[in-house]
């Protein structure tokens, strides 16, 4: 799968071709907007769907510490202040 394009566009291009640029953003493209040759901002899609292969996820978590779910829950419950107004300040 090809990576979505990233283009540099001028402020004038953004103003004149906003419809085409927004359709590009919907397709996953991102744009750096320039004014007088200086980058001033980026236009990026909000909803990016990033696919991470299962093997990469497994490799990333292969060395992670194991969590005892019961102990984790007990620790959380012990830290929760049951009455936030009952404090010795």
Give a quick account of the main beta sheet: strands, pairing sense, barrel closure.
Answer: 3 strands, mixed
User: What would the CATH topology of the domain at 6-43 be?
Assistant: YefM-like fold
The tally of strands reads: 3
User: Which CATH first-tier class of the domain at 6-43 would you pick?
Assistant: Alpha Beta
Unreliable segments of 5+ consecutive residues:
none
Roughly what percent helix? 25-40%
Q: Please count the helical segments.
A: 4
Oligomer classification: single chain
H/E element sequence: EHHEEHH
Query: What structural category characterises the helix and strand content?
Result: alpha+beta
Task: Give me the Rg, rounded.
Answer: 24 Å
Distance between the termini: 59 Å
Mean pLDDT: 85
Largest sheet, order of strands side by side? Answer: 1-2-3
The percent range for strand residues is 15-25%
- Secondary-structure arrangement, i.e. CATH architecture of the domain at 6-43: 3-Layer(aba) Sandwich
Overall spatial form: elongated
Secondary-structure map with pairings?
Layout: E1 6-10, H1 11-16, H2 18-26, E2 30-35, E3 38-43, H3 54-61, H4 69-79
Parallel strand pairs: 1-2
Antiparallel strand pairs: 2-3
